Each structure stands twice: as structure tokens, then as C-alpha cells.
Amino acid sequence: MPEGHSVHRIANQFRASFVGKPVEVTSPQGRFAAGAAKLDGATIVDAKAVGKQMFLEFDNGLFLTVHLGLYGSWDFAGDFSLDPTTRSAKGRMGQTNMRGTELVDSAGEDSWKSIGAPRRARMRMSESEKREDDIDVFPPEPIGAVRVRILAETVVADLRGPTKCDVATPEEVDATIAKLGPDPLVDSPKKGADRFYERVHKTKTMIGLLLMDQSVVAGVGNVYRAELLYRARLNPHTPGNEVPEETVRALWKDWTKLLKSGVELGQMMTMSHLSKKSYAAAMKSRDDRHWVYHREGLPCRTCGTNILMEEAAGRKLYWCPVCQA
């Protein structure tokens, strides 16, 4: 499932490529035909992400709200405009260490090697970003079960497999956002930290579950949950109301840092203080980007104890029983 940084990057791409443009909205699959008709012909005026949800605002007073869930993805095709994070990466999304070194992810997360050539490119954005075959004809025919197609003059976005896809009023959007926890890229540092501490401190639920609760903090998924707890040397079973306030606020500060890094890099890089060589290796292979995530049975990178994996509310929780004792 895409975590917060991926959804913010998708919103960035919509702002760069669609905002200010009238669009044709259709439902090639047919399941969203009524909703598409309400948005068809309107102009997109804004795109924003809060946690794992994205909100496209149209000039007719309506929003398209999308939660990708486990299987959702956006496919962009055509003549792309670049969002600021892509420009800063010299047109390479998800394959650069932001220091001018071109890297190719061995797992395929290489996105665009050159976003400006050819002009009619195709890319899929979800949990990862992958460059697809270039297109010869614009707009391309929909591939698969496309729930929503958003077509501007030179660029198209196709949505497939979302958990949630609705047309909403401003009041409905406000109500949805009000139910979500703070997001470091939406809330101010102090407001976000205060809201996070308030929601953690009032419950006995273990912190390992609270970090996955989108009403407590927006955008954290399984990878970031495991890595944040390890970086804080915090036992995931600690009740929220027993986590010291300074630790809760440090968690928020670290989440802010990791989220911003994820948006910039297009990768969940959660290791720090690496040598230049180790950093380059980590950016080439996702297996080298994390302290504990997906490392059950392997030695802890710090103490050598085998990393544990357990089921927690139906999701896999990874942690070190020594470093996080």
C-alpha cells in the first residue's frame, strides 16, 4: 500500500501537469460514470494529499477524493510537466541520491530516466514509481479496468483499482480530513506535534498499533512504522500513555524528516549516517534502505540479534528485541 510520501508525490504531479487546465473526465470501466459526469469539463484548481488520501479540487466546487488502498495506482501519459522534486532530481524520480549521482534500482523502481525525452512518456505512480513503455499516439487507449480517466490537452491520468474514489463537496472533504491525524506536510510543526502527542497520550493502545492508525497520525504505513520505532529505540508494545512526551515529540520530528525525504527521493530511505558508498548501495537496493523492515531472522544492523516479525492487527511488525527492549 502506498505510504504518505507516495501520495504527496502524486499530488505534486497533478499540480504540475493538470492544475489550471480544463479536463475531460470519464470512466472507461463504467463503474464511476455518474461521478465522472459531475466533473467532466471542469478545470482542476488544486491537488493536495493528507496522509494516504488525495483530493483533486475542481472549479465547479466539487472534489475527486481518492484512496489507492492495496491495489490502486495512477498512470500518467503524455507531455509531462515536472513537479519541483522531480526537477531537483534532474528529471529522475526514485533513482537518484539527490547528489548528482545517477542510480538504477535493481528492483525496478527506476521511474523516469529522462522525463523530458521522449515527450510522450508513460509512468505508473503507486507504492513505487515505474517507467512504462513510451506512447506513439495520444491519448493512449485505456489499459485494464480504468476507473477514472482525466484527460487534458497534452497529458492523461488513469486511475485503476482504488479502495476509495468519490465525488465530494467541500464540506465532505473537510469532514474527511477532520477524522485524520496530523500530516507533517499539512500541519504546522507545533500544531502537528501537539495533535500527535494528544492522540497518543490518551490511550493504552500499544504504540506499534497507534502509528498505523490514520486517525492518530496520517500517512504512516508498515515500513515507516517499523523504522520509526527502531530509530526511536522504542518497544512497539509500549502503551501510548506510557511513552514519554519527549519521545512522542521526537517521533513526530523524525516522521517529519522521513516524510520530507521520501517526497524528495521517491524512496523510503530510513537509514542514516551512511558512508557515500553505503548510501549509493542503499539507493540501488531497497533491501539496504531499512534498519528492520522485512528483515525477520536477519541480524540487527546494530546489535546482531535476529530481527523479529509478528502479526499485529493483521499486519507484519518488525522489531529488534534488544535495541527496542
TrEMBL record:
Classification via CDD domains: AcNei1_N
Keyword Cell membrane (UniProt): no
Stored SUPFAM superfamilies: Glucocorticoid receptor-like (DNA-binding domain), N-terminal domain of MutM-like DNA repair proteins, S13-like H2TH domain
InterPro entries registered for this protein in UniProt: FPG_cat, FPG_N, H2TH_FPG, Ribosomal_uS13-like_H2TH, Znf_DNA_glyclase/AP_lyase, Znf_FPG/IleRS
SMART domains hit by this protein: Fapy_DNA_glyco (SM00898), H2TH (SM01232)
Protein species of origin: Frondihabitans australicus
Keywords: DNA damage, DNA repair, DNA-binding, Endonuclease, Glycosidase, Hydrolase, Lyase, Metal-binding, Multifunctional enzyme, Nuclease, Zinc, Zinc-finger
Cofactor: Zn(2+)
PANTHER family tied to this protein: ENDONUCLEASE 8 (PTHR42697)
Protein name, as recorded: DNA-(apurinic or apyrimidinic site) lyase
Domain Formamidopyrimidine-DNA glycosylase catalytic residue range list: 2-89
